[in-house]
Structure formats: C-alpha cells, structure tokens
Specification:
Shape: globular
Oligomer: single chain
Number of helices: 11
Mean pLDDT: 80
Radius of gyration: 22 Å
Largest sheet: 8 strands, mixed
Length: 321
C-alpha cells in the first residue's frame, strides 16, 4: 500500500527473545504492501529492524532465526545454555534437576555480575548480531534506519544514524546487567529501552507521517502474582515502570501491534517460532487500525495539497490581475 501521505515508520520495541514477534508483524505489513520509509528499533527491535532495513525479507529472517536456534553455535553459547537449562515445569526427577541447575546458574551469574559490568560480554552477543546483520554502515541500508540506545554517563537517549550497523545494534542490545555496555569515546552506551522501550518519538522527530509501533513487553497482570522477596518486588516495580513508560510513548503512535507474548522470559529463544506466529496474528488483527491510520494521513495530505494549490492559484491571479 503506497502512501501519498509521506513517510511511514515502523517502530520496533525491546523485549529480548519476545522481539522475534517483530518478524511476524513485518511479514504481514510486507504482504499488505505497506511502503515502509523508516525503521526505528531498540534492543531486539533494533536487531530485527536493522536486518529488515538492510533488505532481508521477513520470510528469510524467519528461516535464519529457526536455523540459528538449532545450530551448534547457539547451543554452545551462554544464551543457548541459559535457555537449555531453563525448567519447563513438571514434578519428575529431570524437572527437579533442571530447576536445581538453573538455580545454581542464576546464583553464579549474579555472583559474576558483582565483579564485571555484565553477565554476558560483547563477544557473547556479537555472534548473534553478526549472524543477522551484514557488515555495512547505517547510511547504506535500503530503508533508513535508526538504532536507539542510552548513554549511561549523561543519561540521555542516543539515536544512532550513521556508522557500523552492527556496533549500533550491539549498543542498543546491551541489556543492563545482562550484557556489558559499549564504550564510545566519553559515552557508555547501553540498551535503548532504559529511556525508550518503544521509540515512537524518534520516528516523529525523523519526520514520520504515520507511525506503526510493535510492542513486545511483558503483560502487566496481577492475578496469581507472588511478591514475597526483595527480588520479586524489584522485578514487579521494573515491569510497572516499563509498562508506564511504553504506554506514554505509544500515545503518539497511529497504530499499535501487540503480539500475545505473555510473560515469556527475555532469554526464551527456544520459543522463536511461537513468537513469530503471534506477531503475525497480532498484525492481522491490527490491520484495520493500520488501514485507518494510512487513510487518515492520506486524506490530510490530500487536503494540504489542495490548500497549497489553492494558495498558489490565488497568488498567481494576484500577480497577473
């Protein structure tokens, strides 16, 4: 669907592995012929959005994700080991052993975090970034692309629009505590979600006329919630802050796609196929809203063009009268 209203932007939010739902949403927008003129992403949204901006079609991205998920490289990586040891429920001996191993690993990771800036190093994440993204500069992407990150020194949002796309996405994906931040001169860059989970405002600043946002953060449900430890309190407080922050930004979006990703953990990479299907399902459900936004912008653009033309004709008449 070509738009005469101007630039259509897709904004992809952060959420770890839940961000694979972005692929499903992009599949539907591509199928419907939406002419995307700008991609803005933070964290996993930057990774998927950057790949799409480079010209990798959603169907190909899906194949790449599923192939990487089952690859030896991923299974032997720290992220693969974290996911493989995650308990899947049940009361059997194997389930109990997995829970014990997971508890031990989490305690080990927390101990390591006391002595270094992140549980995972840049190298642990670089393999994923390099797998999905070509070694090019952002200026050379097929679709204009912006990666959003946060400078831990100044506390400011940093929008990266030039330089290595791999480095930009690596900085945007540096989840606090999980991945060490990236040093860039005087700046210390970390996950863009610290200040902007769904950077709709960046798309507006970049001149977008229509903004389609895809949100993959956790659901904020209180039913059956257990808050009994300091860690539980901290986690719940963080979820509430993230929810309020994203809702505030989403007010400026024209259409919001919300895949049903539940409360899946950020490291649940084994659920990639499920996330992609949910992204596709949510985008189809939201399609009427997207159509309305595009049509509304089209009408506004048509009216503006008419008024400008009328103004030109009046001035032209005045000069010749």
């Amino acid at each position: 669907m070509k738009s005469e209203a101007g630039k259509i932007a897709v904004v992809l939010g952060g959420g770890g592995a839940r961000g694979f739902a972005h692929i499903g949403a992009l599949k539907v927008l591509r199928e419907k012929g939406v002419d995307i003129g700008l991609v803005v992403g933070t964290s996993m949204g930057a990774l998927i959005g950057g790949a799409y901006a480079c010209g990798i079609e959603p169907a190909q991205l899906e194949r790449m994700v599923l192939a990487y998920e089952s690859s030896k490289e991923f299974r032997s990586s720290p992220l693969g080991k974290m996911e493989r040891n995650r308990p899947q429920g049940g009361t059997g001996l194997v389930s109990k052993l997995l829970r014990a191993v997971n508890a031990f690993n989490e305690a080990l990771y927390m101990a390591q975090a006391m002595f270094k800036p992140g549980i995972l190093s840049h190298k642990d994440v670089e393999s994923i970034v390099n797998y999905f993204l070509p070694d090019i500069n952002i200026e050379n992407t097929r679709i204009p692309f912006r990666a959003v990150t946060t400078d831990l020194v100044s506390g400011q949002q940093i929008v990266i629009s030039q330089g290595s796309i791999r480095q930009a996405v690596l900085a945007s994906s540096a989840v606090p505590g999980a991945v060490e931040p990236l040093r860039d001169g005087e700046r210390l860059l970390a996950d863009g979600g610290i200040v902007s989970l769904v950077p709709v405002g960046v798309a507006r600043t970049e001149g977008a006329d229509v903004v389609i946002a895809v949100v993959v953060d956790k659901e904020l449900k209180g039913e059956g919630l257990a808050i009994s430890t300091a860690t539980d309190v901290y986690g719940r407080a963080a979820d509430i802050m993230c929810h309020c922050l994203s809702d505030f930004e989403l007010r400026e979006a024209d259409a919001v796609i919300r895949p049903n990703v539940g409360n899946s953990q950020w490291s649940a990479f084994s659920q990639a196929a499920y996330f992609i299907r949910e992204g596709e399902r949510a985008a189809r459900a939201c399609w009427p809203d997207v159509q309305k936004a595009l049509c509304r912008a089209h009408r506004q653009s048509a009216l503006l063009c008419f008024l400008i033309g009328l103004k030109d004709r009046i001035f032209s008449f005045g000069r010749t009268g």
